[in-house]
Amino acid sequence: MPPRSPRRTGDASVAVRDLADVRKHLSFGHRRTAYETLLSVAVDGVLPRGALTELAQMFRCHPRTISRLWTQARLSLRGGHRAADVASKTKRNSGRYALRTSDEIEAAIRNVPQMQRQTLRSLSAACGIPMTTIFSHMKKNHRFKARSNYVKPHLTPANIEERLKFAMSFWFYLTKVKRRYYVYDEEVAARAVKSKRFITIPCRCGQAAI
Protein backbone atom coordinates (compact mmCIF):
# COMPACT_ATOMS: atom_id res chain seq x y z
CA MET A 1 0.00 0.00 0.00
CA PRO A 2 1.61 3.32 -1.06
CA PRO A 3 2.20 5.90 1.69
CA ARG A 4 -0.37 8.57 1.98
CA SER A 5 0.58 12.12 1.05
CA PRO A 6 0.67 14.63 3.95
CA ARG A 7 -2.42 16.72 4.53
CA ARG A 8 -2.45 20.26 3.26
CA THR A 9 -3.19 21.66 6.71
CA GLY A 10 -0.06 19.99 8.05
CA ASP A 11 2.01 21.49 5.24
CA ALA A 12 0.57 24.91 6.02
CA SER A 13 1.38 24.65 9.72
CA VAL A 14 4.96 23.59 8.91
CA ALA A 15 5.34 26.50 6.51
CA VAL A 16 4.01 28.90 9.13
CA ARG A 17 6.44 27.57 11.73
CA ASP A 18 9.28 28.09 9.27
CA LEU A 19 8.21 31.67 8.63
CA ALA A 20 7.31 32.55 12.21
CA ASP A 21 10.79 33.86 12.93
CA VAL A 22 10.85 36.06 9.84
CA ARG A 23 8.37 38.63 11.16
CA LYS A 24 7.71 38.59 14.89
CA HIS A 25 5.70 41.81 15.02
CA LEU A 26 3.25 43.26 12.52
CA SER A 27 3.10 46.97 11.82
CA PHE A 28 -0.11 48.90 12.46
CA GLY A 29 -0.88 48.96 8.73
CA HIS A 30 -0.45 45.20 8.43
CA ARG A 31 -2.61 44.62 11.50
CA ARG A 32 -5.37 46.83 10.09
CA THR A 33 -5.22 45.07 6.72
CA ALA A 34 -5.32 41.64 8.38
CA TYR A 35 -8.37 42.59 10.42
CA GLU A 36 -10.21 43.97 7.42
CA THR A 37 -9.39 40.78 5.50
CA LEU A 38 -10.82 38.67 8.31
CA LEU A 39 -13.95 40.84 8.37
CA SER A 40 -14.49 40.23 4.68
CA VAL A 41 -14.47 36.43 5.07
CA ALA A 42 -16.26 36.19 8.44
CA VAL A 43 -19.87 35.03 8.49
CA ASP A 44 -21.87 36.41 11.41
CA GLY A 45 -18.63 37.01 13.31
CA VAL A 46 -17.36 33.45 12.75
CA LEU A 47 -14.24 32.81 10.68
CA PRO A 48 -14.15 29.91 8.22
CA ARG A 49 -11.82 27.01 8.87
CA GLY A 50 -8.25 27.73 7.84
CA ALA A 51 -8.68 31.51 7.54
CA LEU A 52 -6.20 32.26 10.32
CA THR A 53 -3.54 29.94 8.90
CA GLU A 54 -3.95 31.28 5.37
CA LEU A 55 -3.68 34.87 6.54
CA ALA A 56 -0.66 34.02 8.71
CA GLN A 57 1.10 32.67 5.63
CA MET A 58 0.26 35.86 3.76
CA PHE A 59 1.76 38.11 6.47
CA ARG A 60 4.55 35.69 7.43
CA CYS A 61 3.61 35.40 11.09
CA HIS A 62 2.22 32.78 13.45
CA PRO A 63 -1.51 31.97 13.31
CA ARG A 64 -1.80 32.81 17.00
CA THR A 65 -0.73 36.37 16.16
CA ILE A 66 -3.70 36.69 13.79
CA SER A 67 -5.96 34.98 16.33
CA ARG A 68 -4.99 37.42 19.10
CA LEU A 69 -5.51 40.32 16.69
CA TRP A 70 -9.02 39.13 15.83
CA THR A 71 -9.93 38.57 19.49
CA GLN A 72 -8.57 41.97 20.54
CA ALA A 73 -10.52 43.78 17.82
CA ARG A 74 -13.79 41.99 18.65
CA LEU A 75 -13.45 42.66 22.38
CA SER A 76 -12.77 46.36 21.78
CA LEU A 77 -15.99 46.67 19.77
CA ARG A 78 -17.95 44.91 22.50
CA GLY A 79 -16.39 47.28 25.03
CA GLY A 80 -17.93 50.32 23.33
CA HIS A 81 -15.17 51.45 20.95
CA ARG A 82 -16.41 52.99 17.72
CA ALA A 83 -13.55 51.43 15.77
CA ALA A 84 -11.80 48.14 16.34
CA ASP A 85 -8.59 48.39 18.36
CA VAL A 86 -5.87 46.63 16.39
CA ALA A 87 -2.87 48.45 17.87
CA SER A 88 -0.04 46.33 19.16
CA LYS A 89 0.38 46.02 22.94
CA THR A 90 4.13 45.54 22.65
CA LYS A 91 4.92 49.26 22.73
CA ARG A 92 3.09 49.78 26.02
CA ASN A 93 4.23 46.55 27.68
CA SER A 94 7.91 46.41 26.73
CA GLY A 95 11.05 47.82 28.25
CA ARG A 96 12.22 47.96 31.83
CA TYR A 97 10.22 49.51 34.63
CA ALA A 98 11.02 53.09 35.60
CA LEU A 99 13.41 53.39 38.52
CA ARG A 100 11.62 56.51 39.81
CA THR A 101 8.02 57.59 39.63
CA SER A 102 7.01 61.04 38.41
CA ASP A 103 6.13 62.09 41.98
CA GLU A 104 9.56 61.02 43.26
CA ILE A 105 11.32 63.01 40.54
CA GLU A 106 9.18 66.08 41.26
CA ALA A 107 9.89 65.84 45.00
CA ALA A 108 13.64 65.58 44.37
CA ILE A 109 13.61 68.60 42.05
CA ARG A 110 11.58 70.73 44.46
CA ASN A 111 14.16 70.09 47.20
CA VAL A 112 16.86 71.72 45.06
CA PRO A 113 17.29 75.51 45.52
CA GLN A 114 16.39 77.52 42.44
CA MET A 115 19.91 78.89 42.21
CA GLN A 116 21.01 75.35 41.30
CA ARG A 117 18.23 74.88 38.74
CA GLN A 118 19.58 77.19 36.06
CA THR A 119 20.81 74.36 33.83
CA LEU A 120 19.84 70.72 33.51
CA ARG A 121 23.42 69.75 34.29
CA SER A 122 23.51 71.64 37.60
CA LEU A 123 20.01 70.40 38.48
CA SER A 124 21.03 66.82 37.74
CA ALA A 125 24.13 67.13 39.92
CA ALA A 126 22.14 68.66 42.80
CA CYS A 127 19.27 66.15 42.88
CA GLY A 128 21.23 63.07 41.78
CA ILE A 129 18.91 62.26 38.86
CA PRO A 130 20.39 61.76 35.35
CA MET A 131 19.78 64.53 32.83
CA THR A 132 18.07 62.07 30.45
CA THR A 133 15.56 61.18 33.18
CA ILE A 134 14.88 64.85 33.91
CA PHE A 135 14.44 65.57 30.19
CA SER A 136 11.95 62.68 29.87
CA HIS A 137 10.12 64.02 32.93
CA MET A 138 9.85 67.43 31.23
CA LYS A 139 8.29 65.84 28.13
CA LYS A 140 5.71 63.92 30.19
CA ASN A 141 5.01 66.61 32.81
CA HIS A 142 4.21 69.84 30.97
CA ARG A 143 3.98 71.78 34.24
CA PHE A 144 7.76 71.54 34.60
CA LYS A 145 9.50 73.81 32.11
CA ALA A 146 12.25 76.41 31.77
CA ARG A 147 11.15 79.97 32.47
CA SER A 148 13.08 83.19 32.07
CA ASN A 149 13.07 85.46 35.09
CA TYR A 150 13.68 89.22 35.14
CA VAL A 151 14.43 91.24 38.24
CA LYS A 152 11.72 93.70 39.24
CA PRO A 153 12.14 97.11 40.96
CA HIS A 154 10.06 96.32 44.03
CA LEU A 155 12.10 96.59 47.25
CA THR A 156 11.10 98.12 50.56
CA PRO A 157 13.75 99.55 52.90
CA ALA A 158 13.54 96.41 55.00
CA ASN A 159 14.05 94.29 51.89
CA ILE A 160 17.05 96.38 50.90
CA GLU A 161 18.63 95.91 54.31
CA GLU A 162 18.05 92.16 54.25
CA ARG A 163 19.41 91.92 50.73
CA LEU A 164 22.53 93.89 51.68
CA LYS A 165 23.15 91.54 54.60
CA PHE A 166 22.72 88.60 52.26
CA ALA A 167 25.05 90.13 49.68
CA MET A 168 27.70 90.84 52.30
CA SER A 169 27.71 87.22 53.44
CA PHE A 170 27.70 85.88 49.87
CA TRP A 171 29.48 88.62 47.98
CA PHE A 172 30.30 86.34 45.07
CA TYR A 173 26.60 85.76 44.24
CA LEU A 174 26.30 88.53 41.64
CA THR A 175 22.90 88.50 39.98
CA LYS A 176 21.96 89.18 36.37
CA VAL A 177 19.04 91.00 34.81
CA LYS A 178 17.76 87.77 33.29
CA ARG A 179 18.08 84.27 34.69
CA ARG A 180 16.37 81.04 33.74
CA TYR A 181 15.15 78.49 36.30
CA TYR A 182 13.48 75.09 35.96
CA VAL A 183 10.35 75.41 38.09
CA TYR A 184 6.77 74.13 38.26
CA ASP A 185 3.65 76.16 37.50
CA GLU A 186 2.99 77.38 41.04
CA GLU A 187 6.64 78.22 41.78
CA VAL A 188 7.70 81.81 41.10
CA ALA A 189 11.33 82.83 41.09
CA ALA A 190 11.05 86.28 42.68
CA ARG A 191 14.10 88.51 42.31
CA ALA A 192 13.92 92.28 42.58
CA VAL A 193 16.22 95.26 42.83
CA LYS A 194 15.56 98.98 42.80
CA SER A 195 16.49 99.11 39.14
CA LYS A 196 18.85 97.46 36.70
CA ARG A 197 21.40 100.20 37.42
CA PHE A 198 21.68 99.00 41.03
CA ILE A 199 23.05 95.57 40.08
CA THR A 200 26.61 95.28 41.39
CA ILE A 201 29.27 95.27 38.66
CA PRO A 202 32.55 93.61 39.74
CA CYS A 203 35.80 95.47 38.96
CA ARG A 204 38.83 93.81 37.48
CA CYS A 205 41.65 93.38 39.92
CA GLY A 206 45.00 94.78 38.88
CA GLN A 207 43.61 97.02 36.16
CA ALA A 208 45.92 99.94 35.57
CA ALA A 209 44.45 103.39 36.17
CA ILE A 210 44.83 105.94 33.44
UniProtKB/TrEMBL annotation:
It comes from the Eukaryota. Residues 30-78 form the DUF7769 domain. InterPro entries: DUF7769. This is DUF7769 domain-containing protein.
